[in-house]
Amino acid sequence: MKISARNQLKGTVVAIEKGATTAHVRIDIGGGAMVTASITNEAVDELKLAVGGPAYAVVKASDVMVAVD
């Protein structure tokens, strides 16, 4: 895989919840951290995502917000 995004988090798919058009995919990236992505059901099928299978969470953002209490 070649991609310009630098934030590539390899993990394991732990849940896929399909809705009418969109799915929520949870990826365990280790260290007790989970990433949840909203993608189309079509993308889930095309990527052949399955619980227990490997996947990357690729984060590409133009803005990052930081907050404190």
Give a quick rundown of the structure.
The protein is mainly β. The chain is built from 1 helix and 4 strands; from the N terminus they run E-E-E-H-E. The chain has a 4-stranded antiparallel beta sheet with strand order 3-2-1-4.
CATH architecture: Beta Barrel
Low-confidence stretches: none
Please provide the ordered H/E string of secondary-structure elements.
Answer: EEEHE
Q: Treating each run of at least 4 consecutive H or I residues as one helix, how many helices?
A: 1
Write down the overall mean pLDDT: 91
Structural class assignment: mainly beta
Strand order across the largest sheet: 3-2-1-4
Shape: globular
CATH superfamily: RNA polymerase II/Efflux pump adaptor protein, barrel-sandwich hybrid domain
CATH class category: Mainly Beta
Give structural notes:
The chain is built from 1 helix and 4 strands. It is mainly β. The protein has a single domain, classed as OB fold (Dihydrolipoamide Acetyltransferase, E2P) (Beta Barrel). The model has no long low-confidence stretch (mean pLDDT 91).
